[in-house]
Specification:
The complex is a heterodimer of chains A (172) and B (1177). Chain A is an alpha+beta fold and 172 residues long. Chain A has five helices and seven strands, in the order ββαβββαααββα. With 1177 residues, chain B is α+β, with helices and mostly antiparallel strands. Classes of the chains: A alpha+beta (172), B alpha+beta (1177). At the A-B interface, strand 2, helix 2, helix 4, strand 7 and helix 5 of A face helix 2, helix 4, helix 6, helix 8 and helix 10 of B. Chain B: This is AP-3 complex subunit delta-1 isoform X3.
Chain lengths: 172, 1177
C-alpha cells in the first residue's frame, strides 16, 4: 500500500499515512486531487478507480471516506478488507466510533493504524492482538492531558454510526 | 524546589492541550488561519520551556496542525527532543510526529541515529515497537545503513511482537540500503517457518514484495512456498503467496503447471472473494505464460470464466467491476471463452455505475466477431439513445466506430449496413465526433468499391436533409460529416441518380453558414457534379451539333434536355455568393469554378464538346496507399539516404547545447563550429523579432493558431445572419434506410450463402456474376462468413502504382521483390547499427541520469544485478555522508577521525571485499542482492570531509560543517573528539567567540560568552562526536571563528584543567546543501538571467572525470544534473537559498569549471575553493 487517507464528506483531511517518501508539496497535491475525485463519485459506483499508475480503493463509512492507494498487482478486495478491519478496530477501541472520536483523538487513531499496518503491509491480522498491544501501550502511558483515554463530550454532537458491511475475506 | 514544581504545573494547566486546540479550531471557523497562527505562536513559546511534558503536548498539537496542511518542519529538532524522552508517553508522541513529518530532506534526521538505536535495544518491547514503527516511515539510506544490523538482531527477538515488526521493516531497509539484503536473507528465510503465525505472515509479505521486484532470485524458494500454500489456512498469507507465484511463473513454466491444480482446488473451495479473485488472476497469468505449453487448460479457463461470471452477476458493484477487469485479461488470450458471455457484458452496459459501463465497453471491443458484430452494434445504438450525459454518449460513439473499424474492418461483412450505421450516428445530438464519422465514411467509400453506389445515394440524402445544416449541428461539429458527404457525391458522381438535385442541395444559400473548409469542398464538388451532368448529356446526344434539338429523342436518358444549361445557370447564379466568402479557400475555389463554368458554357453554346476536357480535371483513380508503401519506391541512383546532409553534430554537444549556450565559451577545442551555432541563435532571434514586428503591424494578417479552431469558433461564421427555419424535423432522415433492416438482410444473406453451398453446383453461374464476392464455404464458423463487400486494401503490401487492384501475387512484383530486398539489406543493417548505438547511448545516459550522485555511473547496472530496482540511488559513496565506509563495521565507536588510519582501513576493506566477493561468487546463484559490485574501472579515492581542527597531547579535534536547508540560516558543526592520552577527560566545554556573522546556538538562558558543554566524557583512547549549531548571517564569504575547548584531565595522580585553542573555518562550500535538481529546472534557472558567472581552469589533472565530479559533489555538496561525455552540469543551493550552477568540462589534463551564482561575492569565494580542490586532484 502506498498511502492511506481519511477525509470527511466536506473534504477535510482527518488522517493521513504515507508509506512512500514524498515531499509535503507532492502529498498535498495528491490529497487535493484524490479528495476531489473520490467525493465526485456517486454513491452507487464501485469502490475502485484507476488513478495515475495506481489503483485507488475507497470506502465510505458514515461521514468518513477511507481511501487507500495500491499498486497495479495488488488485490483490491483485500484492501477493502484492510479498510474494513481498521474501521472495526477503531470501533472496538472507541466503542462505536464516530468522526469526532478520530478528530479529537487523532493520535490514537494513528497508534491503532501503526499496530495494524507497518510500512504499508499488514502486520497483524488478529484484531484481538492489535487491541491487546494498544491497551498495553496505553497502560504504560502516564496520565497526560492530551493523551488520556479518550473522552469527548459526545452528547453535544449527533453521531453518525459507522456501518459494518460486506466482507471479502474470512476472518481468521 | 517544590514551589517551582507547583508553579510549573499551574502553568501547564493553562496550556492548551490537543483537544482544546481542536475545539478552538472548530469554534473559529471564520478566522481559522488567524487562530491557528496564534496557536503556533503559543506552541513556539511552549517549545522553549524545559518541561518535556509541555514540549510533548506542543509537538502533539503540531502533528495535528501538520495534518491540516501547516508546515512544521521548523520544529524538527523539538520533535527529536521529545522522541528521546525516557517516558513512553512522550516518546510515543515524538515518534508519531517524526513519522508524520520527517522525510529524506529533513537534515536533523541524522541526529536520531543513536537515539533510535538506543530505543531499539530498550528492555521495553513497546519502546522498541514505537521506534520500529516510526522508523518505517522515515527511514533514509543513512539510517538504513547504520541500523540494519540492529534491526537484523531484532528479527530473532524473543517476543513475536518485536520479531514481526522487525521483519516487516527490513523490507524498507532493503529498499533504502540494498547491501543489507544479502546478510539478512538467511534469517528472513528462517522466519518463514517461525512458530508465530504473525511473524510468518510478515516474512511472507516481505519476500513476496521483494520477489515482485526481482522474481528470478526467489525461484529457489518456490518449494517452500508451495508447502506453505497447501498448509496455510490464513487467507491474508495465502493471497500473498499466490501473488508471489504469479510473479514467479513467467520465469518457470513448470511451476505454473504444478500450480494449476492447487489453485483450481482453492477456487472451488474458498468462500472468500478476495482469495478467489487472487487465484483467478494468478491462474490467468499462469495460463498466459504457458499459452502453448499446456495441452488441456481449457478446463481451468472455463472454471475462471464461470467464477468471473458469478462475480459479474453479483449485485455488489465492486465484484462486478473486478469481474469485468479480469475478463478482459482472459479475453486477450482466450477470446472464444469470453465471447460466450456476451449477454452478460451487454447487460452491464445498463449498469448505473459509469466505470462498470466503460469496462464493459472495453470488453465488447475485444469480443466482436463477424457473427455478432451487427447484434452488438445494434445494442450499442440502443444504449446511445438511452444514454444520458454527452461524455458517455461520445464514448459509446467512438467505441462503436472503433469496434467496427478494428483490424481493417475485419468483422464487417456488410458495408451497406456499416454506412447506414454511420448515417444513423450523424443524428446524435451534441456529439463532438463529427470528424470521426466523416473520416469513416470517406475511408469506406474510397476503399470498398462495391459500396460506392450505395454510399453516394446515402450521402446525397444526407446533403439534402435539413437537420445537419441547423445551427446547433454547426456549433458542435456534427456538420463535419457534410464534408465527407459532399466529397463522396462529387468524386463518385457517376453513381449519382440525380446529380442536378444534389447540385441544387449543395448550392443552397444556407451552405454559406458552414465552416470554411466544408464550403470549399462543396464548391469544388459542385464543379465535379456539373461535369457529370454535362458528360451524361453529351453521351446521351452523341452528336453535339444537333444536341439541343435532338434531346427529346433520347427519352430514357437520365438527363432532360438542357440539364447542363440549367446546372450551369444555377452555378452562375449561386457561386458569386461564395466568391464573396470571408474564407480565402472558398473564395479562391469559387472564383476559379465560376470562370471554368462560364468558359464551358461559352464553348457549349458554340457546340464544342467540353465534357471530356472538364472531366480530365478530375480524372484518375484514387488508389489507397499502404502504410509501408514508401518501401516500394526505388531509391534513385546516387542518393544515399544514410549519408549526412550536414556534418552530424556529436552527441555530447547536442545534449549540452542548452547549458552551454548560457555559459561563456572558453575552450576552443570543445567548441562546435561557432559560426553555425551563432547562425542558429541569430535565426531564432530574427524569427522572434519578425514575429514581434508582425504582431505590431496592423496591416499584417496574423497567422491563426490552427485551422481547426478557425472554423469551429470563428465568430464571423456564426454571426452571419441566416434565417434558419427549424421545423420540428423528425429524427429519421426520410429516405434513408435504417440500419436495423440490415441485420435481417444479413441473416438472409448468410442463410442464402449456406443454401448456396448446398446447391453450389446448380448456381455456379449466378455466383460468378456477382462481382466482388469470394466464393466461400461457409457454415457457422466465424472465419467462413464471406463479406458482402471487400475492403480494398490490406495493411501490409500496396498495389504498385497505377495498378487499380493488386492481385495477390503478380509475377512482376515477385520479380521485383528480391531485387529490392537485396539492395536494401546492407542499408538496413547499417541503420540498425546506428540505432543500436543510439540505444546504447540513451541507455547509458538514462542510467547515468538516474543516479543523481555521480559516484557510480553506468557500471552499477552493467555489472551486479541489483535485486531491487529501487528508485533511490544507493551509491555507497553518496556525497552527503561523512565516512561512508565505517558505519556498519563499527557501530559502537564509529567515528575514527584519523586520516591515515582510515586509509589503511580502506585498503584492508577493499582487500576483504575482494575476498568476500570471490566467496560470494562461489556461493552459487545470488540470493538477490543489491550489493553493487565495485567498479572495475577505478575505485573512488577515499574521501573524508572531516578536517583536523586542533590537537594537543590530550585530545585531537576534527570537524565537519554541514548546512541545513530546514533550520533557516544554520550550519551544524560535527566535532569529533578523540582522547589521545591515558587520562579521563571530563567537563568538556566548547567556548566560541561569536562574530557578527556567525553565532553559536547556546542553550536558552546562556550568555554570549558562556561555553557550551559537550554532552559526554572521554575515557582514554575513546572518541565521540558532538554537534553544535551555528546561525549564520551572511553566507557570502568564508570566515573563521576562534574558540577554546576546556576540559579536566583526570588520572590516578590527580586532575588538571586543560585548554586547547582552535580556529573553526567555515568555507563557503559548507554553506551549500546538496540539492537535487532536474535538468529542465536547471535550464530554466540558467535562462532566467539572474545569475552572474565566472570561470576557473586548472591544468595538470590526471584524475578521471568521474572522480573529479565525485570530489566536487563530496567536498562542495553539489549534485550532478546531467552528464554527457566529459561535460557535466551540477547544482547546489546555499542555506539561504542562493542557487549555484556549475558546468564542469574536462579536456586533456585540465578541467574547467564555469560557475554561475546568484551572488557575485559568493561566486568569488566558491571559485577560490573549487580551484583549491581541483588543484589537489
Amino acid at each position: 500500500m502506498q498511502f492511506m487517507l481519511l477525509f470527511s464528506r466536506q473534504g477535510k483531511l482527518r488522517l493521513q499515512k504515507w508509506y512512500v517518501p514524498l515531499s509535503d508539496k507532492e502529498k498535498k497535491k495528491i490529497t487535493r486531487e484524490l479528495v476531489q475525485t473520490v467525493l465526485a463519485r456517486k454513491p452507487k459506483m464501485c469502490s475502485f478507480l484507476e488513478w495515475r499508475d495506481l489503483k485507488i480503493v475507497y470506502k465510505r463509512y458514515a461521514s468518513l471516506y477511507f481511501c487507500c492507494a495500491i499498486e497495479d498487482q495488488d488485490n483490491e478486495l483485500i484492501t477493502l478488507e484492510i479498510i474494513h478491519r481498521y474501521v472495526e478496530l477503531l470501533d472496538k477501541y472507541f466503542g462505536s466510533v464516530c468522526e469526532l472520536d478520530i478528530i479529537f483523538n487523532f493520535e490514537k487513531a494513528y497508534f491503532i493504524l501503526d499496530e495494524f499496518l507497518l510500512g504499508g503491509e499488514v502486520q497483524e491480522t488478529s484484531k484481538k492482538n492489535v487491541l491487546k498491544a494498544i491497551e498495553q501501550a496505553d497502560l504504560l502511558q502516564e496520565l497526560f492531558p492530551c493523551l488520556k483515554r479518550p473522552c469527548v463530550a459526545r452528547e453535544l454532537y449527533v453521531r453518525g454510526r459507522c456501518q459494518v458491511s460486506t466482507h471479502y475475506c474470512e476472518r481468521t | 524546589m517544590a514551589l517551582k514544581m507547583v508553579k510549573g504545573s499551574i502553568d501547564r494547566m493553562f496550556d492548551k492541550n490537543l483537544q482544546d486546540l481542536v475545539r478552538g479550531i472548530r469554534n473559529h471557523k471564520e478566522d481559522e488561519a488567524k487562530y491557528i497562527s496564534q496557536c503556533i505562536d503559543e506552541i513556539k513559546q511552549e517549545l522553549r520551556q524545559d518541561s518535556l511534558a509541555v514540549k510533548a503536548n506542543a509537538v502533539c498539537k503540531l502533528t495535528y496542525l501538520q495534518m491540516l496542511g501547516y508546515d512544521i518542519s521548523w520544529a524538527a529538532f523539538n520533535i527529536i527532543e521529545v522522541m528521546s524522552a525516557s517516558k513512553f508517553t512522550f516518546k510515543r508522541v515524538g515518534y508519531l510526529a517524526a513519522s508524520q513529518c520527517f522525510h529524506e530532506g529533513t537534515d536533523v534526521i541524522m541526529l536520531t541515529t543513536n537515539q533510535i538505536r538506543k530505543d531499539l535495544s530498550s528492555p521495553s518491547q513497546y519502546d522498541t515497537g514505537v521506534a520500529l514503527t516510526g522508523l518505517s516511515c522515515f527511514v533514509t539510506p543513512d539510517l538504513a545503513r547504520d541500523l540494519a544490523n540492529d534491526i537484523m538482531t531484532l528479527m530473532s527477538h524473543t517476543k513475536p511482537y518485536i520479531r514481526k515488526k522487525a521483519v516487516l521493516i527490513m523490507y524498507k531497509v532493503f529498499l533504502k540500503y540494498p547491501e543489507s539484503l544479502r546478510p539478512a536473507f538467511p534469517r528472513l528465510k528462517e522466519k518463514l517457518e517461525d512458530p508465530d503465525p504473525g511473524v510468518q505472515s510478515a516474512a511472507v509479505n516481505v519476500i513476496c514484495e521483494l520477489a515482485r521486484r526481482n522474481p528470478k532470485n526467489y525461484l529457489s524458494l518456490a518449494p517452500l512456498f508451495f508447502k506453505l500454500m497447501t498448509s496455510s489456512t490464513n487467507n491474508w498469507v495465502l493471497i500473498k503467496i499466490i501473488k508471489l507465484f504469479g510473479a514467479l511463473t513467467p520465469l518457470e513454466p513448470r511451476l505454473g503447471k504444478k500450480l494449476i491444480e492447487p489453485l483450481t482446488n482453492l477456487i472451488h473451495s474458498t468462500s472468500a472473494m478476495s482469495l478467489l479473485y487472487e487465484c483467478v488472476n494468478t491462474v490467468i497469468a499462469v495460463l498466459i505464460s504457458l499459452s502453448s505449453g499446456m495441452p488441456n487448460h481449457s478446463a481451468s479457463i472455463q472454471l475462471c470464466v464461470q467464477k468471473l461470471r458469478i462475480l459479474i452477476e453479483d449485485s455488489d458493484q465492486n465484484l462486478k467491476y473486478l469481474g469485468l477487469l479480469a475478463m478482459s485479461k482472459i479475453l486477450r488470450t482466450h477470446p472464444k471463452s469470453v465471447q460466450a458471455h456476451k449477454d452478460l457484458v451487454l447487460q452491464c452496459l445498463d449498469d448505473k455505475d459509469e466505470s462498470i459501463r466503460l469496462r464493459a465497453l472495453d470488453l465488447l471491443y475485444g469480443m466482436v466477431s463477424k457473427k455478432n458484430l451487427m447484434e452488438i452494434v445494434k445494442q450499442l445504438l440502443q444504449h446511445v439513445d438511452k444514454a444520458e450525459g454527452t461524455a458517455y454518449r461520445d464514448e459509446l460513439l467512438t467505441k462503436i466506430i472503433a469496434i467496427c473499424s478494428q483490424g481493417n474492418y475485419q468483422h464487417v461483412t456488410n458495408f451497406q449496413w456499416y454506412i447506414s450505421i454511420l448515417v444513423e450516428l450523424t443524428r446524435l445530438e451534441g456529439t463532438r465526433h463529427g470528424h470521426l464519422i466523416a473520416a469513416q465514411m470517406l475511408d469506406v467509400a474510397i476503399r470498398v468499391k462495391a459500396i460506392r453506389a450505395f454510399a453516394v445515394a446515402q450521402m446525397a440524402a444526407l446533403l439534402d436533409s435539413a437537420p445537419l445544416l441547423a445551427s446547433g449541428a454547426r456549433r458542435n461539429g456534427i456538420c463535419e460529416v457534410l464534408y465527407a458527404a459532399a466529397w463522396i457525391c462529387g468524386e463518385f458522381s457517376e453513381h449519382l441518380q440525380e446529380p442536378q438535385q444534389t447540385l441544387a442541395a449543395m448550392l443552397r444559400p444556407r451552405v454559406s453558414a458552414l465552416p470554411g473548409h466544408i464550403q470549399a469542398v462543396y464548391v469544388q464538388n459542385a464543379l465535379k457534379l456539373y461535369t457529370a451532368v454535362l458528360q451524361r448529356q453529351e453521351q446521351a446526344a452523341p452528336d453535339p451539333q444537333d444536341a439541343p434539338p435532338d434531346a427529346d429523342a433520347d427519352a430514357d436518358a437520365a438527363d432532360a434536355p438542357g440539364a447542363a444549361q440549367e446546372a450551369a445557370q444555377l452555378l452562375l447564379e449561386r457561386l458569386p455568393q461564395f466568391v464573396q466568402s470571408a474564407d480565402l479557400e472558398v473564395q479562391e475555389r469559387a472564383s476559379c469554378v465560376l470562370q471554368l463554368v462560364r468558359q464551358a458554357q461559352k464553348l457549349q453554346a458554340r457546340g464544342v464538346p467540353v465534357a471530356a476536357e472538364l472531366s480530365a480535371l478530375f480524372a484518375g483513380e484514387l488508389n489507397p496507399v499502404a502504410p509501408k508503401a514508401q518501401k516500394k519506391v526505388p531509391v534513385p541512383e546516387g542518393l544515399d539516404l544514410d549519408a549526412w546532409i550536414n556534418e552530424p553534430p556529436s552527441d555530447s554537444e547536442a545534449e549540452d547545447e542548452r547549458p552551454r549556450a548560457m555559459f561563456q565559451e572558453d575552450e576552443p577545442r570543445h567548441a562546435r563550429p561557432k559560426a553555425q551555432e551563432a547562425d542558429d541563435e541569430e535565426l531564432a532571434r530574427r524569427r522572434e523579432a519578425r514575429r514581434q514586428e508582425q504582431a505590431n503591424n496592423p496591416f499584417y494578417i496574423k497567422s491563426c493558431p490552427s485551422p481547426q479552431k478557425l472554423y469551429q469558433d470563428a465568430p464571423g461564421v456564426d454571426h452571419i445572419p441566416v434565417v434558419c427555419i427549424d421545423l420540428s424535423v423528425p429524427l429519421r432522415v426520410p429516405g434513408l434506410p435504417a440500419s436495423e433492416q440490415y441485420v435481417k438482410l444479413e441473416e438472409e444473406r448468410r442463410h442464402r450463402q449456406r443454401a448456396e453451398k448446398g446447391g453450389r453446383k446448380h448456381r455456379k453461374k449466378d455466383k460468378a456474376g456477382r462481382g466482388g464476392r469470394r466464393g466461400g464455404s461457409l457454415p457457422d464458423s466465424d472465419e467462413d462468413i464471406a463479406p458482402a463487400q471487400r475492403v480494398d486494401i490490406v495493411t501490409e503490401e500496396m498495389p504498385e502504382r497505377h495498378r487499380p487492384v493488386a492481385p495477390p501475387k503478380s509475377p512482376k512484383k515477385e520479380a521485383a521483390a528480391p531485387k529490392e530486398r537485396k539492395s536494401k539489406k546492407p542499408k538496413k543493417e547499417k541503420g540498425r547499427g546506428r540505432d543500436r548505438d543510439r540505444d546504447r547511448k540513451a541507455q547509458a545516459l538514462d542510467l547515468w541520469l538516474c543516479s543523481t550522485p555521480p559516484a557510480e555511473p553506468a557500471e552499477s547496472t552493467a555489472l551486479g544485478t541489483p535485486s531491487l530496482d529501487t528508485e533511490v540511488p544507493t551509491a555507497p559513496q553518496q556525497p552527503s555522508e561523512p565516512c561512508p565506509d565505517e558505519g556498519d563495521r563499527e557501530p559502537e565507536a564509529h567515528k575514527k577521525p584519523h586520516k591515515r588510519k582510515k586509509q589503511r582501513q580502506e585498503k584492508e576493506r577493499s582487500g576483504r571485499d575482494k575476498k568476500s566477493r570471490k566467496k560470494r561468487a562461489e556461493d552459487g546463484p545470488p540470493l538477490g542482492t543489491g550489493a553493487l559490485e565495485e567498479a572495475e574501472e577505478e575505485p573512488l579515492p577515499p574521501m573524508s570531509s572531516y578536517a583536523l581542527l586542533a590537537e594537543n597531547d590530550f585530545v585531537r579535534m576534527t570537524y565537519e560543517v554541514r548546512g541545513s536547508l530546514q533550520g533557516g540560516s544554520q550550519v551544524t558543526v560535527s566535532l569529533v573528539l578523540e582522547n589521545l592520552s591515558s587520562h579521563v577527560l571530563k567537563s568538556l566545554e566548547l567556548g566560541v567567540l561569536d562574530s557578527l556573522n556567525a553565532r553559536l546556538a547556546r542553550p536558552p538562558g546562556a550568555s554570549a560568552h558562556d561555553g557550551v558543554p559537550v554532552p559526554f566524557q572521554l575515557p582514554p583512547g575513546v572518541s565521540n562526536e558532538a554537534q553544535f549549531v551555528f546561525s549564520i548571517q551572511s553566507v557570502l564569504t568564508a570566515q573563521k571563528l576562534k574558540g577554546t575547548l576546556s576540559f579536566i584531565a583526570k588520572n590516578d595522580e590527580g586532575s588538571t584543567h586543560e585548554k586547547l585553542d582552535f580556529k573553526l573555518a567555515f568555507t563557503c562550500s559548507s554553506y551549500l546543501v546538496t540539492t537535487p535538481c532536474y535538468s529542465d529546472a536547471f535550464a530554466k534557472l540558467l535562462e532566467s538571467g539572474d545569475l552572474t558567472g565566472s570561470c576557473v581552469k586548472v591544468d595538470g589533472i590526471t584524475m578521471t572525470f568521474r572522480n573529479v565530479l565525485a570530489k566536487i559533489c563530496f567536498h562542495h555538496r553539489f549534485s550532478v544534473v546531467e552528464r554527457v561525455g566529459s561535460c557535466a552540469s551540477m547544482y547546489s543551493r546555499s542555506i539561504q537559498g542562493h542557487h549555484v550552477c556549475l558546468l564542469v568540462k574536462q579536456a586533456e589534463q585540465s578541467v574547467s569549471v564555469d560557475v554561475k551564482c546568484a551572488d557575485a561575492t559568493l561566486l568569488g569565494s566558491l571559485l577560490d575553493e573549487l580551484r583549491a580542490t581541483l588543484s589537489a586532484c
